[in-house]
Amino acid sequence: MNTATSTFDRWWAYLQLMRPANIITAWADIMAGFAASGYFVFNHQFNLIPLLWLLLATTGLYGGGIVFNDVFDAQLDAKERPERPIPSGRASLSGATLLGIMLLSVGVAAAAQVSWLSAILAVAIASFALLYDAFGKHNSIFGPINMGVCRGGNLLLGASVLPMVLKEYWFLALISIVYIAAITILSRGEVHGAKLNTSVVALSLIIIVIAGLLGLGLLPNYQVIAALPFVVVFAVRVLLPFIQAVRKPTPEQIRIAVKAGVLSLIVLDSTLAAGFAGVLYGLIVLSLLPISIKLAQVFAVT
């Protein structure tokens, strides 16, 4: 009985390292990018196989990247977050490293099943994720941009099902880059709190993202009316906790705001999905939110 319990605890620890709730938000990136590609319009067929490969790819890439985040932070977490799987001894450093390598490899291999460009993007995302884990997160300027590039690349990975589309919509990645930069900047205060100007910068970036979502209405094939209800939901979910973080930049309030920001990535992606593929598709992407929220009640998101 003790052996069975010990085995379960060990597997559970490695699952915690992957942060499943966050992986669901990465799925939303892929689905939003897929919508922007206009795949079904161009191909005149209902073939979900490429989408499934890309969902598997982002599962590996995001999961691997987040595992390596804990691998590189093992010594720091031993002081600041001793409850995490590695410093607590529930997961070994070597085991976590092997898991991270396997996940990143699966991510690249799955992307290669879709297109050569998808494979190249997957390698780039994996590289930027490792760069962030090892060096980027320690730099107050490069770090947020580095993390944003990973998520922006993930969005483009979804659109890479039709490589020619990326030439027209590469700039969509900027929305994710700015948004993730805002969350990353604010997350630096999760342990010791944040300075007021840091919280203000993060809030300002969120406002820029909302303006960008509305500005996409200038594109001929983006239905801003369909996207508008999603924009409202997104603004309510993110602005309120970020404003609270400005008013009271304590570690607890910042963690609340960061968690809301991470989970609201799905709302952001559903906005893009609705704008490019209609309200129904947007709602399908949004349906990932309760799944992610439920998982966030069990697994940490930061």
UniProtKB/TrEMBL annotation:
The chain crosses the membrane at residues 21-42, 48-72, 93-110, 116-135, 169-187, 199-219, 225-244, 256-274. It comes from the Bacteria. GO terms for cellular component: membrane. Keywords: Membrane, Transmembrane, Transmembrane helix. GO terms for molecular function: transferase activity, transferring alkyl or aryl (other than methyl) groups. Its main location: membrane. It is a multi-pass membrane protein. CDD domains: PT_UbiA_1. Gene3D superfamilies: UbiA prenyltransferase (1.10.357.140). It is found in: Membrane. This is UbiA-like protein EboC. It comes from Halotia branconii CENA392.
